[in-house]
Inverse folding.
C-alpha cells in the first residue's frame, strides 16, 4: 500500500485527541469517519471541529468554501463496524487503558477492509501489545499526535515489534500530507520519545509540589518569563490530570516505581478535578485560561534542572536505539510542545558536564535513581 491509496480515514474517539485528529485529516483533504461510543460524545467532537474551523476561517487560514467542503467530508458514527467498513487508514484515540485498546483493535481487525492500516494514538503504551490483538500486526503502527492536534506539529510514528516497513512509510507519509513533522520511533519503548523525555521532569515537578517547595504559580511564572507559552503545571491541567495520572501509573508499572503518581495527584483524580476539561485542576479554569502572575516567579528554581533531566533521559533513548539521532530528538521536542529549542541544543550550550552534575545532585536530594546520569551524559560524547 502507498500513501496515495489512502482516501478515507476513520478516527476512533471524538474526545480531545480524536476530534483534533479528525480535523487534521479533514484539513489534509481526506474523507473522515469519526466514531465514539455515544451520540453525545460524537456531537460534542463535531461541534469542537466546527468551532476550530471557524477560528481558522476567521484567521484566513481556511476559506469559507473549504470549510464547507470539509464539513461535508465528515460522517459520524456510534457503530464501530459501520465506521470503518470502507476506511483505508484507521486512527484509534480512545482512553489509555490497555484492555480497552485491545478490544477496539480486535473489533477494527474484524470490520476494517483487509488492506487497511490500523494506527494507535497511544501516548505511552506498547504498540506491539496492541497489535497482538489483531491478525494483521504488520499493518499496525503507532501514530502519536500532540494536544492540540490541529496546532502541534509533531507526530511520532512508532514501529511495533511486527510493523512492516511499508506500514511505517505509509504512516510517515500520511503525517507529512497532514502538514505535520513526523519522527520515526524505531523501537517500541515506554513513552516513545516526547513523553519519555518529559517523564523525569514530571517526577521532579510532582516532588516539588508534594514537598511544598514551591507553588504551581511560582514555577509557571518562572517558565513563562523564559518564553514558554504555558508553564508546566498549566500544561498538566491543559492535557488533563487524568492523563498525567494514568501515564505515571503505566511508567511506574513498566519502567520504575520512581514514576508512581504522587498523593496530591491521586487526590485530584479522586475529587474529579481533572484540569481544563472539568473547570478545575491545579488551577481554576472556570473563567478560561488561568492568569499567571509573572511577578511571583520563583527565581531560585533553575530551569536547567529540567534540561538536565531531559537530556539525560534522551541519552537513554540513544543508547537503546529507540530513535536515530540527537537531532531527531530535538525535532520531536520542538514540534511536540512550546519549546523553541530541543534539549540537546540547550544542553550543549550549558555544558554536558554541568548537566551530569545536576542529575547527580537531584538524584541524591530526592532519592530518585532514574535521575542518575547515564554514561553517555557523563562522557558528554553526544
Ligand atoms: N483550533 C484552532 N485554533 C486554535 C485552537 C484550536 N483548537 N486552539 C488555539 N488556537 C489558536 C488561537 O485562536 C490563537 O490564535 P491567534 O493567535 O490568532 O489569536 C492561537 O491558537 C494561540 O492560542 P491562545 O491565544 O489561546 O494561547 P497560546 O498562544 O498560549 O496558544 C497553545 C495555545 C497553542 C495551546 C500554546 O499555549 C501551546 O503551545 N501550549 C503548549 C502545548 C503543548 O505543549 N502540547 C503538548 C502536550 S503533551 C501531549 O499532547 C502528549 C500527549 O500524549 C498527552
Amino acid at each position: 500500500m502507498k500513501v496515495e491509496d489512502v482516501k478515507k480515514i476513520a478516527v476512533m474517539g471524538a474526545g480531545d485527541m480524536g476530534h483534533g485528529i479528525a480535523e487534521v485529516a479533514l484539513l489534509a483533504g481526506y474523507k473522515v469517519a469519526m466514531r465514539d461510543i455515544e451520540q453525545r460524545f460524537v456531537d460534542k467532537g463535531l461541534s469542537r471541529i466546527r468551532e476550530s474551523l471557524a477560528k481558522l476561517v476567521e484567521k484566513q487560514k481556511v476559506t469559507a468554501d473549504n470549510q464547507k467542503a470539509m464539513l461535508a467530508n465528515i460522517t459520524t458514527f456510534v457503530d464501530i463496524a459501520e465506521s470503518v467498513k470502507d476506511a483505508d487508514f484507521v486512527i484509534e484515540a480512545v482512553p489509555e487503558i490497555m484492555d480497552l485498546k485491545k478490544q477496539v483493535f480486535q473489533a477494527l481487525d474484524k470490520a476494517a477492509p483487509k488492506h487497511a492500516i490500523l494506527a494507535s494514538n497511544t501516548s505511552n503504551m506498547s504498540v506491539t501489545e496492541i497489535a497482538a490483538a489483531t491478525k494483521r500486526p504488520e499493518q499496525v503502527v503507532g501514530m502519536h499526535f500532540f494536544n492540540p492536534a490541529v496546532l502541534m506539529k509533531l507526530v511520532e510514528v512508532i514501529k511495533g515489534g511486527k510493523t512492516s516497513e511499508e506500514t511505517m512509510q505509509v504512516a510517515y507519509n500520511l503525517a507529512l500530507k497532514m502538514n505535520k513533522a513526523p519522527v520515526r520511533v524505531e523501537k517500541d519503548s515506554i513513552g516513545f520519545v516526547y513523553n519519555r523525555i518529559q517523564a523525569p521532569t514530571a517526577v521532579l515537578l510532582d516532588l516539588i509540589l508534594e514537598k511544598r517547595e514551591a507553588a504551581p504559580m511560582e514555577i509557571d511564572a518562572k517558565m513563562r518569563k523564559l518564553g514558554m507559552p504555558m508553564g508546566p503545571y498549566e500544561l498538566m491541567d491543559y492535557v488533563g490530570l487524568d492523563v498525567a495520572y494514568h501515564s505515571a501509573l503505566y511508567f511506574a508499572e513498566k519502567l520504575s516505581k520512581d514514576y508512581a503518581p504522587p498523593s496530591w495527584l491521586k487526590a485530584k483524580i479522586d475529587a474529579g478535578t481533572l484540569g481544563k476539561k472539568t473547570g478545575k485542576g491545579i488551577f481554576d479554569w472556570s473563567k478560561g485560561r488561568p492568569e499567571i502572575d509573572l511577578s511571583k516567579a520563583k527565581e531560585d528554581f533553575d530551569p536547567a534542572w529540567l534540561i538536565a533531566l531531559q537530556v539525560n533521559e534522551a541519552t537513554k533513548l540513544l543508547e537503546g536505539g529507540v530513535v536515530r539521532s540527537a537531532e531527531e530528538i530535538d525535532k520531536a521536542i520542538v514540534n511536540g510542545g512550546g519549546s523553541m529549542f530541543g534539549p540537546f541544543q540547550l544542553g550543549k550550550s550549558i555544558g554536558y558536564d554541568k548537566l551530569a552534575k545536576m542529575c547527580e545532585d537531584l538524584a541524591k536530594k530526592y532519592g530518585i535513581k532514574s535521575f542518575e546520569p547515564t554514561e553517555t551524559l557523563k562522557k558528554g560524547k553526544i
About this structure: The radius of gyration is 21 Å. The mean pLDDT is 97. The pocket of 3-hydroxybutanoyl-coenzyme A is lined by residues 52, 55-56, 59, 123, 146-148, 150-152, 195, 229-230, 235, 239, 243, 336-338 (CB under 6 Å).
